[in-house]
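Appendix C reproduces, verbatim, an entry submitted by the partner laboratory led by Prof. M.T., so that reviewers can inspect both the input and the predicted structure.
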Amino acid sequence: MSTNLSSIILVVDDEKDTLDLLTLLLTGENYQVLTASDVKEATSILINRYNNQELLPDLILLDIKMPGINGYDFCEFIKERVSFSKIPVVFISALTFKKDIERGLKCGALDFVKKPWSSNEELINRIKRILSFQPVSSHI
């Protein structure tokens, strides 16, 4: 088990089972986990943390297909705002056609994980790799 307690990960997914599974997996690796069941809630979390000068997430794990605003649009929203643009985004989605992956990467995501992911270890290793290139919680 690693010591990543200072790393904050925002998980955005409309499926409660996925939110619960990722929360359990990430907290087991000592990450701080914030969850949102839709883009509106995720946007509120980011804006409130920014306005209150709280630490922003070090990483966002984002589903694509959600009610209301989709993950692509949210990723573009994040990348277009100076306050949030440095937060890396990883799509975790069941949409796995080449065009879906390309669109996700084009709108600013650093990685694309197919849902269901092949193994928890692979997912954690991808997260660790991305976080190793990012300053921890310094996005304020």
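The longest strand covers residues 8-12. Additional entries are available on request from the coordinating office.
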